[in-house]
């Protein structure tokens, strides 16, 4: 039996309030636990109606133990307070008491009405999703693909290529419907119970361009679970991994599997597991590849969320080049602050999680991320862009401050020029009034020769002198401003 397991990270509108679980663990756990009953009542209403006149091949999932008409299942995970005491009680499981994801969902094919029906969809036996912080959901689909691959052996490569293309399409279709039909109403219910934003961030405004990304996949990975004793297993293995390259190993990657050096290969988008035990691709606890699959989930999450931060930072850099108004600068600064905090949280969460993971899972996760050059291609560029964005916004703010300071200087210079003229005219008028009005002279203890001289000057001379003094002030201002700018 050959199975295909699809794993795709999906962009969603879910961001937890940073540190909420640490500030008040009891209240945080209570919030999640109290939402489960309302969630169980909501889910049956979200299932699409099945037209009575629709007939077609029943999906293989119909043979599973679940009865017909079973509603979707969503289980909230953060329902117990987190504790940092008495950990590492066993080395065969994770030491962390709380999962990285906040909820899990399980669906059946009849719960999705918008996926194109074909041999791949007819073979679906499992649909599940997990919601993570920082705006990411992992969607998983498991399908039996023997009917798709049946046919002459020489046509197997063509059918494998068609299977890969169809898997990508199905991942995109299912992701959009899962987010729109199920996840969005679930998040709306949770936000309705958290209007003060103590646990969840508010929904992104509808006019924000980023909302167009919600429900879209970042990429679609294809994991082929192959029985090595099945006919065509070697050809299937070689063709599925033909585009995978391993640095430092000149042999084709498929040789490592076929020679017995490894039983799985998780490198880049097309993955392969040799199922010698016949456990299948459900990746249940105790299955041969359970640890490797968990490691792949974690690797996809950390790569996906940091990739989104990297893309948003690039956009801020582009926007900062065209920002002109103070409002635009303040808006960009707010985005940069939030993204910087989120990038630091993602990096810290990976480091924190690594302490508590089962050793086999951690080793596999680190190996996957190292092969993807996670630190070189994402962590380092993200921190560099954070610093670069900060410098760019500081530069723009300094430029606007300098421009505002120049306007202030010009206003003050204009006031000074008018004050010089006004003072000169006032002194002239005062001197002439004293000379001609005896009643005002009694208040003057002595005639000022300076006031008398100014009063004796013609008005034109006063105006010209005031203009010359003002021009000298302008020259002095320009001199010192040029010296300051250099």
Q: Report the principal-axis shape.
A: elongated
Bin the helical content: 40-55%
Question: What is the radius of gyration computed over CA atoms, rounded to a whole number of angstroms?
Answer: 36 Å
Q: List the uncertain runs.
A: 53-66
**Average pLDDT figure:** 84
- As a percent range, the share of strand residues is 5-15%
Summarize the helix and strand pattern as letters.
EHHEEHEEHHEHHEEHHHHHHH
Count of individual helical segments: 14
The total tally of domains equals 2
Taking the alpha carbons of the first and last residues, their distance comes to 75 Å
Main pleated sheet:
8 strands, mixed
Order of strands across the biggest sheet? 2-3-4-5-1-6-8-7
Overall SS class: alpha+beta
Transmembrane segments: 410-428, 461-480
Keywords: Membrane, Transmembrane, Transmembrane helix
Secondary-structure map:
Layout: E1 3-11, H1 20-23, H2 25-46, E2 73-76, E3 103-107, H3 119-122, E4 124-132, E5 136-144, H4 146-149, H5 156-192, E6 221-226, H6 233-240, H7 253-258, E7 264-268, E8 270-274, H8 290-322, H9 326-356, H10 359-371, H11 374-436, H12 438-441, H13 449-455, H14 459-485
Parallel strand pairs: 6-8
Antiparallel strand pairs: 1-5, 1-6, 2-3, 3-4, 4-5, 7-8
Helix pairs in contact: 2-5, 5-6, 8-9, 8-10, 8-11, 9-11, 11-13, 11-14
């Amino acid at each position: 039996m050959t199975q295909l397991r699809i794993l795709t990270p999906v962009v969603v509108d879910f961001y937890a309030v940073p540190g909420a679980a640490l500030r008040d663990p009891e209240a945080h756990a209570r919030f999640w636990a109290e939402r489960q009953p309302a969630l169980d009542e909501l889910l049956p209403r979200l299932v699409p109606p099945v037209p009575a006149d629709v007939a077609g091949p029943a999906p293989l999932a119909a043979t599973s133990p679940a009865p017909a008409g079973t509603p979707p299942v969503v289980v909230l995970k953060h329902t117990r307070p987190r504790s940092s005491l008495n950990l590492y009680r066993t080395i065969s499981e994770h030491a962390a008491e709380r999962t990285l994801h906040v909820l899990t969902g399980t669906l059946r094919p009849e719960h999705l009405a918008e996926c194109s029906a074909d041999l791949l969809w007819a073979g679906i036996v499992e649909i599940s999703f997990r919601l993570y912080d920082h705006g990411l959901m992992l969607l998983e689909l498991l399908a039996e693909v023997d009917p798709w691959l049946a046919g002459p052996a020489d046509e197997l490569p063509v059918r494998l290529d068609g299977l890969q293309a169809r898997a990508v399409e199905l991942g995109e279709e299912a992701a959009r419907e899962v987010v729109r039909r199920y996840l969005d109403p679930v998040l709306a219910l949770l936000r309705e119970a958290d209007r003060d934003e103590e646990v969840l961030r508010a929904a992104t405004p509808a006019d924000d361009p980023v909302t167009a990304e919600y429900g879209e996949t970042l990429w679609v990975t294809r994991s082929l679970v192959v029985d090595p004793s099945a006919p065509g297993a070697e050809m299937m293995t070689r063709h599925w991994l033909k585009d995978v390259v391993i640095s430092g190993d000149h042999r084709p990657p498929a040789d490592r599997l076929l020679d017995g050096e490894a039983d799985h290969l998780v490198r880049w988008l097309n993955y392969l597991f040799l199922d010698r035990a016949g456990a299948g691709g459900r990746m249940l606890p105790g299955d041969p590849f359970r640890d490797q699959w968990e490691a792949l989930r974690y690797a996809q999450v950390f790569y996906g969320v940091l990739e989104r931060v990297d893309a948003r930072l690039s956009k801020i850099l582009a926007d900062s080049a065209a920002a002109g108004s103070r409002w635009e600068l303040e808006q960009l600064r707010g985005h940069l602050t939030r993204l910087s905090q989120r990038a630091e949280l993602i990096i810290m969460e990976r480091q924190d999680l690594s302490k508590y993971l089962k050793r086999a899972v951690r080793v596999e996760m680190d190996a996957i991320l190292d092969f993807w050059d996670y630190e070189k291609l994402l962590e380092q560029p993200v921190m560099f862009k954070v610093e670069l964005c900060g410098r760019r916004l500081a530069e723009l703010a300094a430029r606007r401050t300098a421009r505002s300071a120049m306007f202030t200087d010009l206003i003050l210079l204009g006031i000074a020029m008018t004050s010089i003229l006004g003072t000169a005219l006032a002194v002239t008028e005062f001197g002439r009034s004293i000379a001609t009005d005896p009643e005002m002279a009694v208040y003057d203890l002595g005639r000022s020769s300076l006031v008398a001289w100014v009063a004796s000057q013609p008005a034109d001379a006063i105006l010209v002198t005031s203009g010359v003094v003002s021009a000298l002030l302008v020259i002095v201002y320009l001199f010192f401003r040029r010296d300051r700018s250099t």
